[in-house]
Design brief:
- This protein is an all-beta fold.
- The chain has strands at about 5-10, 25, 30, 55-60, 70-75, 80-85, 95-100, 105-110, 115-120, 125-130, 135-145, 145-150, 155-160, 170, 185-190, 195-200, 215-220, 225-230, 240-245, 250-255, 265-270, 275-280, 285-290, 295-300, 305-310, 315, 325, 330-335, 345-350, 355-360, 365-370, 375-380.
- The chain is globular, with a radius of gyration of 20 Å.
Length: about 375
């Protein structure tokens, strides 16, 4: 049976008075492709017909240079069609990340200091959670469908959101070193532990970073800080993300100082805390995604993908030969995989909206590129 895969693309484009594909102008329905949003898009009197709600999709975040309210685009890989602004009312200001948990998307909006809950099937906002003013939320991870752990970059806290009651508890992160502040970034969960990467710098520009980087470990059950750890390697500074895999191997993504191109690396520690890998890949890696024994990294320094062997812990494509997606653009922002293993990557580029790429996982050849509604910021697969 033929399978269809879609992309949902979250973008910072202007929000118009359009209701999820079927625009209402003087009460007249303007026909468009039927999508899963609880609206009669094709104006035939039916809603969400044709099994559109059972089609696998992918979600991605977009941040145009204007930093206006966000929108949600739907990209269908089967035919390459793009439906723009399908989320009625859009997202909050400067959406920074989108994740899926169960039947919901959770969108972090940095400027609005909010967490937004969106129903996956209807693509409608069902709840807003407002975080402390000035906290600048950065990343989110959801625990057992009950709590959301949100890194708050400017308040140096992790905000724990009870998704049922809306109650919010702040966990203050201690300074990892004298003169350095814990600027929390990527958040991941493994078992009942929450791992929060910290850029750990002095707040100046250019920044002075903690020598071995820092990340916090939080008990997800009782919302308490367990400890602040370091990478174990002096050259690993400005930690962007920490991922613990099913074999208890810890992968620490270090971006360097954002000024020296060869400082990026991935440090790997085993279950006992021993450093077993120190992979110098250069540039400024920010997030890592695993598939079929490889780790794929986004790159802050350009529209490239860096690749490591997650078993041998060696670089496959480093800064000297990255998987280059386009000639210009600020950075790669997200990576995802469809059911066939094909790689999909998004790029933040405000000069050219061809910001989605399909890539062969064996040869790293670009199979196709697609135009989105703006610069992409994040992506997540939706089965």
């Amino acid at each position: 049976m033929r399978r269809y895969v879609n992309f949902i693309l979250l973008g910072l484009t202007a929000v118009w008075a359009i209701v999820a594909g079927c625009a209402q102008s003087s009460h007249e329905c303007v026909a468009s492709a039927e999508i899963c949003d609880g609206v009669d898009n094709d104006c035939n009197g039916g809603i969400d017909e044709g099994s559109v709600c059972s089609i696998p999709r992918l979600a991605a975040l977009i941040q145009p240079a204007g930093f206006v309210k966000g929108s949600l685009d739907l990209f269908a890989i089967a035919d390459g069609s793009l439906s723009k602004d399908v989320l009625s009312g859009g997202t909050g200001e400067i959406p920074n990340q989108i994740v899926k948990d169960g039947d919901n998307f959770y969108i972090v909006n940095s400027a609005q200091n909010s967490l937004q809950k969106v129903d996956v099937k209807t693509i409608k906002t069902t709840r807003w959670y407002y975080l402390p003013q000035g906290s600048n939320p950065w990343s989110v991870a959801v625990y057992q469908g009950k709590k959301a752990f949100v890194s708050a970059w400017l308040s140096h806290t992790v905000e724990v959101v009870d998704l049922e009651t809306g109650y919010i508890k702040s966990i203050q992160l201690p300074d990892p070193e004298e003169g350095k502040k814990p600027y929390p970034l990527g958040v991941t969960i493994s078992g009942n532990r929450v791992y929060v990467a910290e850029s750990a710098n002095d707040g100046a520009w250019p920044s002075a970073y903690k020598t071995r980087g820092a990340y916090a470990v939080i008990d997800a059950d009782n919302d308490s800080l367990i400890e602040t750890k370091d990478s174990g390697i002096d050259a690993c500074i400005n930690i962007q993300q920490v991922v613990v895999d099913e074999s208890s191997m810890t992968f620490i993504v270090c971006a360097g100082d954002f000024g020296t191109t060869q400082l990026g690396r991935v440090v790997v520690r085993d279950g006992s805390g021993n450093v077993t890998g120190n992979i110098a890949i250069g540039n400024a890696p920010t997030k890592i995604y695993f598939n079929s024994g490889k780790g794929y990294l986004t790159d802050m320094f350009g529209p490239d993908i860096l690749v490591i062997d997650a078993v041998s812990l060696a670089a496959i494509r480093d800064a000297s030969n990255p998987v280059a997606l386009k000639q210009h653009g600020y950075s790669t922002t997200a990576i995802a995989f469809d059911s066939t293993g094909t790689i999909y990557a998004t790029v933040w580029d405000s000069t050219d909206n061809r910001n989605l790429f399909a890539i062969n996982p064996e040869t790293y050849e670009i199979l196709s590129s697609y135009e989105l509604s703006g610069p992409a910021q994040d992506a997540v697969y939706v089965e």
